[in-house]
Design a protein that fits this description.
The protein is an all-alpha fold and 401 residues long. The chain has helices at 3-17, 19-25, 31-38, 42-70, 73-92, 96-124, 127-158, 162-180, 195-207, 209-239, 244-268, 274-297, 302-312, 315-328, 335-357, 366-392. It has a single domain (3-393), classed as MFS general substrate transporter like domains (Growth Hormone, Chain: A), CATH 1.20.1250.
Length: 401
């Protein structure tokens, strides 16, 4: 792949994988005001996040096999078109139930961009090159959570939360056009023969304990990360009493750390074993989770709470790049199905946490802190019980450090 095409492809795939933060993060500053407009409880408003995340998880289960059978381009165009239409539906919704329905469809359609982008990355690269490629992808992807809440917060100065979905609709149109111009990366000779055959790949993937370990690890991390996404607006606006604009700047700053951390695997791939990078990442996440729990229990100053999040949040980029690369190395022929599982299972885990964060009300962060702590302990356990020992015995699987 020549340099120019690689840059163009990286930007497109980064934008496609940014569907999740675009659809979730941009309207985060508006959650408290939506709570008042719809006149519902905190957990129900946070359920609008769950609807999108669960939709993205379910959509990826179908998007992966469909792309293995039909190629990457046609499903991408269809997914981005439906995403745009469902976003317009969210903008016009006047009832929370209708809004939840369109959010679900928005997630289902946006999933096609997420899962197919990762499959395209596997089509074009492998090994250390795939780690570097995916790191670049995560860096571009990381710009979305930086810009999204900041833009959302500024929109709220002169418009309601509906203005956020107007902008999301315009982004959907732009991505639809971009996917129409996209060049196919999966030749017909390599495509699955029928839809049933592609689903059979799921069984083989679940029997691969090493791959399953990475799925579980990423699922636990996404549960923690989406607890942070769904609870951060209430943490800073309701507990620390900052404005939506200030919150968006805090959230954007934390997202900046995700982008900067994404450079680490890009620079170190091929020099330091991915397994070693992944191990450091899981340990750092646990330290951040412990610090955040202490801050919540002791009602620490906002500066200390933000600092604890700066320890934990950035690891997502390194964890995503290294774990994805390691788990996909032996699954090039079923990249769509593998990408679907790596995307859908974490989405389900993440979506289940959003309403739990608000279960004790909008003026306590204790549920979020507990989710952080339990999740990071589980992540460390999964790494040392499943991933690490199987990787060390990886000669039989063809996995190299």
């Amino acid at each position: 792949m020549d340099a120019n095409r690689k840059i163009t492809l990286t930007i497109l795939l980064g934008c496609l994988t940014a569907m999740a933060p675009l659809a979730t993060d941009m309207y985060l500053p508006a959650l408290p005001s939506m709570d008042a407009e719809f006149n519902v409880g905190t957990s129900l408003i946070q359920l609008t996040l769950t609807a999108t995340i669960v939709g993205m998880g379910a959509g990826q289960i179908f998007a992966g096999p469909i792309s293995d059978m039909c190629g990457r381009k046609i499903p991408l165009v269809a997914g981005m078109s439906l995403f745009t239409l469902s976003t317009l539906g969210c903008m016009l919704a006047s009832d929370i139930k209708i809004f939840l329905l369109f959010r679900l469809v928005q997630g289902l359609s946006g999933a096609f961009g997420i899962v197919i982008a990762r499959a395209i990355a596997r089509d074009c690269a492998s090994g250390a090159e795939l780690t570097r490629f995916f790191s670049m992808l995560m860096t571009v992807h990381g710009l979305a959570p930086i810009l999204a809440p900041v833009i959302g917060g500024q929109i709220l100065i002169f418009a309601s939360w509906r203005g956020v979905f107007v902008l999301l609709s315009l982004i959907g149109i732009a991505l639809t056009v971009a996917t129409i111009l996209f060049e196919e990366t999966l030749p017909k000779r390599l495509r699955a023969k029928n839809f049933t055959a592609t689903f059979k790949n799921f069984g083989a993937l679940f029997r691969d304990k090493y791959f399953l370990g990475h799925c579980l690890l990423q699922s636990v991390w996404f549960a923690v990360f989406f607890a942070y996404i769904s609870g951060s607006a209430f943490l800073f606006q309701n507990i620390y009493n900052v404005s939506p604009q200030t919150y968006s700047l805090i959230f954007g700053g934390l997202s900046c750390s995700l982008v900067l951390a994404g450079v680490v695997p890009m620079k170190l791939a091929g020099k330091i074993p991915e397994l070693q990078m992944l191990g450091w990442t899981v340990c750092q996440a646990l330290i951040g989770g412990i610090l955040f729990f202490i801050c919540v229990v002791t009602h620490a100053a906002i500066e200390l709470t933000i600092l604890s999040l700066f320890v934990m949040v950035p690891v997502g980029s390194v964890l995503g790049a290294t774990s994805f690369s390691l788990s996909m190395r032996n699954h090039g022929k079923e990249a769509g199905a593998a990408s679907a599982l790596l995307g859908s299972l974490p989405m389900f885990a993440g979506g289940s946490m959003a309403p739990v964060v608000g279960i004790a009300g909008s003026h306590t962060a204790l549920p979020m802190a507990i989710i952080f702590l339990v999740g990071e302990v589980l992540a460390l356990t999964i790494f040392f019980k499943l991933i690490y020992p199987i990787h060390k015995r990886g000669a039989a699987m063809g996995i190299k450090n």
